Every structure is written in C-alpha cells, then in structure tokens.
Amino acid sequence: MRDRYFRSYSSVLLYAVLGSFIYSVGIFVSGFQALGLWIFFCCLLFLGSGYIFYSGRLKTSLLLTFIGISFTVNVSLAYAGLGCEAQLYFLSGTVLFFLSEISNRKITYSLAVLCIVEYIATQMIYSGMAPIYDMSNFTLSLFKQINTFFSFGVVIYTSIMYRQAVHHYEDSLKTLNRKNRYFAYVDTMTGLENRRAMENKLKKLIEEAEQTNVPFVVGIVDIDNFKSINDNYGHPFGDTVLIKTGQVMKNSLRSNDFIGRWGGEEFLIMLPSTSIERGLEIFERIRTAVVSIELEGMNVDLSVTIGCAEFEKNDTLIDLIRRADERLYYGKTHGKNRVVGYENNND
Predict the structure, then answer these.
(1) The one catalytic residue among 85, 101, 265, 310
(2) How confident is the model at residue 19, as a pLDDT?
(3) How many CB atoms lie within 10 A of CB 166?
(4) How far is 47 from 253, CA to CA, in rounded Å?
(5) Which of 7, 31, 113, 126 is the most buried (most CB within 10 A)?
(6) Each residue of 204-215: pLDDT tens digit?
(7) Strands of 75-180, DSSP E
C-alpha cells in the first residue's frame, strides 16, 4: 500500500489543504463570497484526497487530487479571469505528478500530461471570456501574487522531497553495495574472509615479496576426521566445530596475520614478514590451541593438520599453494595432528 514515498506526497496534500483554506478565507473576507466558498470546496476535495490516500487507495487519491487542482483552477479563472494566474497550478500539478514518488508511474505520468493539456486548454478558453467578477487592478494583482506564490511553492516543495528521495536511494544503494562487498569477501558461517578475499591478499603479498625480498609463509589447515564428526554428531555440530576452530586460530595469530576459510574444513593462513622457522612455531601454537578446544561436553578429539610453505623467488600463487597442500597431504597420511613445513618431513 504505502511505499516509502508516501510521506512526501501526503505532505504536498497537506500543503494544498492549508493553502486552499487560507486562500478561500482571504477571498471570502475580500468580498468575493461565492469564489471563496468554491475554493473552500476545493479545500475539502484535497482533504478528502488525503484521507483516501491514508486509507491506501492510491489511484483514487491521485485522481481526486487532479480533480481538485482542475476544479480550483477553472473556478478561479471563471470568476477572476486569466489575470489571476490560477492556471499556474496546472504547472505545479505537472511537477507534482511527474516527480511523485508513488510507484504507479503509469497513472502519475498520465495525470502530469493531463495537467499540461489543461494548462494549454485554459489559456485558450478563458482568453476570450469575460470573468464573472470585475476586480480592480490591485485586487487582481494581489490574487496573481498569491497564486504564483502557492503554485511555485508546490514546485519547490515537491522538488525538495524528490531530492531527499534521491539521497535516500543513494544511501540505500551505498549500504547495499557495502553488504554485497561483505558477502563477496566474507564466509558467512565462520565470519572469516573467504577464498576470494584470501586469494586477493595472497597475490598482493607475492607482489610485495617480489619487490622487497621479505619472506612470508602460508599454511593450509585441515580439521582432522571432520567427516566422521559430521557423520557421528550431525552437521550443525560440525558447523560449530568450524566456527570455534576458526575463532581459536584467529585469536592465536598476530595482528598483521591473515586467516580465511579456504573451503570445506580447510583454512588458509598467511604470515607476512615471517620465515619458515618462525612460521612453524606459530603454526605449532595454533595446532596446540585447537587441541585444547572444548566442544559442549562432547567426547571429540579435535585436531588439525597444517601444511605450510615459505615464499620463494618467482613463486606464483599456484606454486605456493601447491607446496603447502603437498605438505598437508603428507601430514594427513603420516599420523595427522601435526605441522609439516618441509618436503616429506614433519619437523
């Protein structure tokens, strides 16, 4: 029913109600009672349009608003003539409907076109008709200024509300983009960075190492016997294992180290500005920390096997990952729960 656009349109209707009411009172006090009563009737039309709008009948409200504008203009021109500039309300109505934030564009665009047609038609029709009231130049000029003020007031107010809507959409789009970037680079289960993000970081580390000759180490961490954990305790428990293991490893790293979920039960860890000897110490600390994890009273012997490799000159991402993966495989086939940092060696 009411989309986000509803406040701006209802505000314009309120503006129309107050404006036509003040206008009708001023005309009535000025001695033009019949015209004042007609304009007051138009005020009631806008008020009814607002009520219908709040009740959720948007199409009916839009049509009644157009009828209110048309009736106001034609009555004013019939009584005061073209010199009162009441026809300007059709131009403000065109802007109101064209920039309206109501989502049914077919109706609003059609009403905007009708306002333009009526503006042209009234110019042609009333140019050859004598007004019912023979107003003085001062009174006619006063009505002209009032009509100009209120009609352009609608244009200005509608434009302001449209501008606010544009800013709202821009902010919403920025928020959506931030969320998309987050989900594009973060593993939603563990809250760690995902494979895409880690690959990007690894590429940058390789570029820096090629330029500076500063070593760094990568490690692939695999949770031992993870399939058995899922089979014996269920996948929800397996998810808990993944989350806790990831957090414990992250807490065991230095502030400038990187960790992400590489896929399945595997994690990738990068240790910038680190030699293989120092890297083995850090990975051993991580392995020990994982073994100490308590899992909701379950009798699970949780452990990880880690295969790590130090960057070598001219290494590509594939070369580095391949060596770490080979050492992980060696560790998995030679007892598990260990750190392997050299070829066929678990030291």
Answers:
(1) 265
(2) 75
(3) 10
(4) 66
(5) 126
(6) 999 999 999 999
(7) none
